[in-house]
Amino acid sequence: MSTETQEGDDLEERVANFLRRNFPQIQMHGGSAAIQDLDRETGEVTIQLGGACSGCGISPMTIQAIKSRMVQEIPEIEQVHASTGMDGGGHGGGGMSPSFPGEDAGGEESTEDEGPQAPF
Hints:
Layout: H1 3-22, H2 24-28, E1 31-39, E2 44-51, H3 59-73, E3 79-83
Parallel strand pairs: 2-3
Antiparallel strand pairs: 1-2
């Protein structure tokens, strides 16, 4: 096994452990969080929220918390995307989540009021 593959596997494991450690309420409430895509070159990760997360009213706050905390705790991660499957699009299980407080529709940080914060 090459060093690059070992490092990549380690990064994927750290992202999975981050989700389990920081967001146990996802599983406790019947939801799931899985790594859909991980680009080690760009530092982008896409998380698929499923189960009870699809259609849950606090999914946007959960996603915002994941996005803000993961880039702080895992230095290799530059950007986090999350897919909830709520739009039921035909591209393998759903579309990307809408913009969240603190972000405009293009994914850029906004200087406006960020709205309510996640309770965790």
